[in-house]
Write a structure and sequence with these properties.
213 residues, Alpha-Beta Plaits, 2 domains, 12 strands
């Protein structure tokens, strides 16, 4: 498991486009894994790519990327993605994922439910609007993924526009959770840590960032 920290050059056309379209961001990041063409879904899953953009008011955005396979960021450095920190010790960290242990966590998630739309065959995901609903969603995610929530606060993220060539523009709003969790099932938790939590991972949601409590 690898965790990388990248600085983004917002003057780069590639970065600017990727910040406006998570499809482009995901495709650009995949180029760091020695793939130059379209990547089948099974390969995306094998790579285990998860990412999160952290934007502070005055600073340039920072990108955190987690993956099962080793990335080679020099392949996209000319496009405005610059490595500023990498942690090769996630496997060692995961050895401490023991039942009963507590961890500080932060996650940008998309707490949602599927709703049916009249005239459309497939249901779509809709962001949960109530605080209690969203906290219940997080609690349920913990039950399914081997952890319980000791404490949690949420911060709604600003709505962002996503550009899609085929379907046009649409909007996504995430929720950032910060708090403390307790591991209840080591095996389930390790799997959740590798694969991420909740839906819309290709849009930068679901990366579980933790530190020992």
């Amino acid at each position: 498991m690898y965790l990388s920290k990248l600085s983004l050059d917002v003057s780069s056309p590639s970065v600017a486009q990727a910040l406006a379209s998570s499809h482009d961001m995901h495709r650009n990041l995949m180029k760091a894994f020695d793939h130059n063409h379209a990547i089948p879904d099974r390969e995306r899953e094998n790579i285990g790519l998860l990412y999160r953009i952290v934007q502070k008011k005055k600073d340039a955005p920072v990108l955190y990327v987690q993956s099962i396979e080793k990335p080679y960021w020099e392949r996209i450095a000319l496009n405005g993605y610059h490595l500023c920190g990498m942690n090769y010790n996630l496997e060692k960290e995961m050895e401490h994922f023991l039942n009963g242990s507590q961890w500080r966590f932060s996650i940008l998630a998309f707490p949602s439910k599927k709703v049916k739309t009249i005239g459309q065959k497939n249901s779509r995901r809709q962001l949960l609007t109530g605080n209690r609903e969203r906290l219940s969603w997080l609690t349920k995610q913990g039950e399914n993924n081997g952890f319980s929530i000791v404490s949690a606060t949420e911060t709604p993220e600003q709505e962002k526009t996503e550009l899609a060539k085929k379907s046009g523009s649409f909007f996504l709003s995430g929720v950032r959770y910060d708090g403390i969790l307790r591991i209840t099932d080591e095996e389930k938790f390790r799997t959740a840590f590798e694969k991420g939590i909740g839906p819309e991972k290709a849009y930068g949601y679901g990366l579980l960032m933790i530190a020992k409590a």
